[in-house]
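Collaborator request, handled under Task 6.
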Amino acid sequence: MKLCRYWLPDSGPTLGLVDGSLVYNLADADAETFGSFSRMLGLENLPDRAERAAARVRSRAGLLWNDLDVAPDVRKPHLLAPVTKQEVWAAGVTYLRSREARMEESAGGGSFYDKVYYSDRPELFLKGTSNRVAGPNAAIRIRKDSRWNVPEPELALLLGPAGSLVAFTAGNDVSSRDIEGENPLYLPQAKVYKGSCALGPAFVLADSVPDVQALIIELRIRRGSTIPFEGSARVAQMKRTLKDLVSYLFREQEFPYGVLLLTGTGIVPPDDFTLMPGDIVEITIPEIGTLRNPVAS
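Structure tokens returned to the collaborator:
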């Protein structure tokens, strides 16, 4: 089952059922469950509640998905990022391609990335909070003090407060490769700033994905009428298991509202590529949809 967060001008944010080309307001059927994104993440019986609410709302009027998948404007309905009070964390060097790229870009710390790729403990870092996250069709940003910026398309996990896997969405871990490459200790500056992350456009409940390893992540970058880069990767190429990443994330941590975890990228543009203002970044996971964001500086 596919759900989404979206904005209604008269009532604010709500949660919807995505059914084909239509979106139905689940809060109309079950406000206790779907009136709060944070409360929804904490429910153990969410799939059952979602099925019951979906059966009730399908007989009501829905909104066209294409009418919601537009640039955000508070005067019009539009999609929102699936995050409110949650922190967004990220895992690094989980794919071989990422290990290679991080070692190549590093001025002196390349061996660190080789070691973390093979170690038991994964690289985990706080990517941001909701105010740093762009939703569908909102602008992501590249740093003005960086020369080399790339998108990092990733599968993102929506996790409940106790670590249960609730759903999957698509994410973009925008990164400044020259800043991180200069010194690994600069990673927070290369990774964490306003507009450095995007999430959406929808989220699919975990029990609706029979084989997460079969998911394909696709990246396409549009620049005017050209496509300067596109690529794809399979979740099956990830070295670490999702269970392993979640286990380490929840060690000595508390997430009372749940948490989102970006699981790393297996798609890295060539070294002569950098994002430019005006580019359009499209990240597609077919079961979830296409997360589309323009680039600003």
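The cover message to the collaborator said: "The domain at 87-296 is CATH 3.90.850.10 (Fumarylacetoacetate hydrolase; domain 2). The chain has a mean pLDDT of 93. Please let us know whether this matches your experimental observations."
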